[in-house]
């Protein structure tokens, strides 16, 4: 792997951008984005989504890249350096949220790998009952775990080899391949009869959706989730960034690229559904189901019955598997990087992360309810709600760190470096200082009120119990993070002192003097900007 100054590093800007884009692009772009568009007002939702892209996700990516590049540490060490040991727990929260997402995300990737194999082997035909196919698979816990293990093994293999030889090489292949597969699927879907109905449905605006708090919080959660904003990806990958990298440009490229792929996937899925469904109403029903039902029952059924479905189905599920894997390895690297900061080797870190992800992902793999004759992945759906929205809290912690440091000073010193071609103006300060707290408090409060006041039978992700479970799980993770604060802070001090002594000994043998390094300095707050 390429190293400079004894550290791993991306070999090029495009290697970094593709890795970041790989982290951002996931199954949410393919199965979640079309469903959210269909259920929340069409282009009204897209408009809100784009608004949050510029008022939350991209500004947050800029902040994360800047923090990681400056501190050269994972989320825990980064918060320690920016805020001091007192607030280290915020970095622990961010790591644990991304880890919790990976627990169930590995299961989801397993589903895509299973269906790719079924499609490739000719198992998706007009004679197949796709509802029964899904039910029999999701109810067979041993099969679900088997494909969960395959997914984690693929992630382990890539992250084990590090940044340049593992993550960068993998994403340089998978992201272009994913994009080509999705563009091919989109172009093909546009040639189908009644595809125009799908386009009209997707881009027609139901402006009444603007009055729904759930629509706004879903758009914010989708934007944050899709761009990996608040997950710690930006902080982690920036550890391996060249000091000459343009933080602002890389952030915009990641945000725009992710949104473009979401739109391409949305067109492909929605047009395929409308072109192949028996009626307009049936297509609306399929899209309203969203998630697992849309992908593994309805779309699979459409592939089974349409011309060239035998070819499109494996391409579609391969694209989903690539999207899932590029995001999975990002989550694994976030946890592994933090362990490496505590003095662990990469080998030990990656193995431990993989084993823990597998064990704590088992509930998402095996807990399936059968309601009204239909299988429901209730535990997994609940975790998707809890930790998807948890990313918003992580984003708030990043903003808090910037406020504490001084927003204008942070932008001048961390973002607008001499290597930047794209300079960030005061608009970024305004968003971080004012828009972030308003968006978090207003939208989350609005969402809680509407969810609490509108009970649902789907208690695991809507209604009273969903809110209670969400708050309890958040509180548990927050307490764990705070209890570990002092111990982890002291351990980081010890590891940094050990590294410093090792560097001094190596320099002494070479007849050199070690100057104070950014890696070991404690960032001074100074005057707030």
Question: Can you put this structure into words, describing what you see?
Answer:
Helix content is 76%, strand content 2%. The protein is mainly alpha-helical and 529 residues long. The strands form two sheets. It has a two-stranded antiparallel ribbon. A hairpin with a 2-residue loop joins strand 3 and strand 4. Helix 15 (309-341) packs across helix 16 (346-366). The longest helix has 33 residues, at 88-120.
In whole angstroms, the N-to-C terminal distance is: 39 Å
Shape: globular
Low-confidence stretches: 1-6, 517-522, 524-529
How would a crystallographer describe the biggest sheet? 2 strands, antiparallel
Tell me the Rg in angstroms: 23 Å
Residues in helices, as a percent range:
over 70%
Overall average residue pLDDT:
86
Question: What is the helix tally?
Answer: 21
What class, by secondary structure content? mainly alpha
How much of the polypeptide forms β-strand, as a percent range? under 5%
Q: In sequence order, what are the helices and strands, one letter per element?
A: EEHHHHHHHHHHHHHHHHEEHHHHH
> Could you give the count of β-strands?
4
């Amino acid at each position: 792997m390429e190293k400079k100054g004894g550290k791993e590093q991306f070999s090029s800007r495009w290697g970094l951008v593709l890795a970041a884009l790989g982290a951002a692009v996931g199954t949410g772009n393919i199965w979640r984005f079309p469903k959210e568009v269909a259920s929340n007002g069409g282009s009204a939702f897209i408009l809100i989504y784009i608004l949050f892209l510029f008022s939350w996700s991209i500004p947050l990516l800029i902040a994360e890249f800047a923090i990681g590049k400056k501190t050269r540490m994972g989320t825990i060490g980064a918060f320690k350096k920016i805020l001091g040991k007192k607030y280290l727990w915020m970095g622990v929260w961010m790591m644990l949220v991304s880890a919790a997402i990976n627990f169930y995300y590995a299961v989801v990737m397993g589903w895509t790998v299973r269906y790719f194999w079924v499609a490739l082997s000719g198992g998706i035909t007009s004679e197949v009952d796709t509802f029964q196919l899904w039910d029999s698979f999701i109810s067979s816990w041993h099969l679900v775990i088997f494909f969960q293990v395959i997914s984690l093994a693929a992630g382990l293999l890539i992250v084990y080899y590090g940044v340049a030889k593992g993550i960068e090489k993998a994403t340089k292949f998978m992201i272009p391949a994913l994009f080509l597969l999705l563009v091919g699927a989109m172009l093909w879907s546009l040639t189908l009869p009644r595809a125009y109905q799908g386009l009209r449905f997707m881009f027609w605006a139901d402006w009444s959706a603007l009055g729904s708090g759930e629509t706004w919080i879903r758009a914010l959660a989708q934007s944050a989730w899709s761009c990996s904003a608040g997950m710690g990806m930006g902080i982690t990958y920036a550890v391996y960034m060249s000091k000459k990298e343009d933080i602002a440009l890389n952030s915009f490229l990641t945000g725009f690229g992710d949104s473009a792929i979401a739109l391409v996937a949305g067109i492909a899925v929605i047009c395929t559904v409308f072109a192949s469904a028996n009626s307009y109403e049936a297509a609306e029903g399929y899209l309203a189901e969203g998630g697992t039902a849309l992908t593994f029952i309805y779309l699979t059924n459409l592939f089974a019955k349409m011309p060239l479905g035998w070819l499109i189905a494996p391409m579609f599920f391969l694209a989903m598997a690539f999207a899932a894997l590029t995001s999975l390895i990002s989550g694994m690297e976030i946890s592994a990087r933090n362990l490496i900061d505590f003095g662990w080797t990469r080998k030990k870190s990656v193995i431990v992360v993989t084993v823990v992800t597998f064990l704590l992902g088992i509930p998402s793999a095996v807990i399936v309810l059968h309601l009204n004759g239909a299988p429901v992945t209730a535990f997994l759906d609940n975790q998707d709600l809890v930790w998807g929205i948890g990313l918003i809290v992580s984003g708030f912690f990043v903003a808090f760190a910037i406020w504490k440091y001084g927003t204008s000073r942070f932008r001048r010193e961390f973002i607008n470096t001499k290597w930047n071609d794209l300079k960030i103006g005061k608009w970024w300060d305004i968003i971080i200082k004012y828009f972030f707290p308003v968006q978090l408090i207003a939208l989350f409060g609005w969402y809680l009120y509407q969810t609490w006041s509108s009970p649902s039978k789907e208690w695991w992700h809507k209604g009273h119990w969903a809110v209670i479970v969400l708050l309890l799980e958040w509180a548990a993770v927050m307490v764990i993070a705070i209890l570990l604060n002092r111990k982890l802070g002291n351990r980081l001090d010890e590891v940094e002192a050990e590294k410093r002594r090792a560097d001094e000994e190596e320099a002494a043998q070479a007849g050199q003097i070690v100057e104070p390094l950014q890696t070991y300095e404690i960032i001074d707050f100074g005057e707030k900007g």
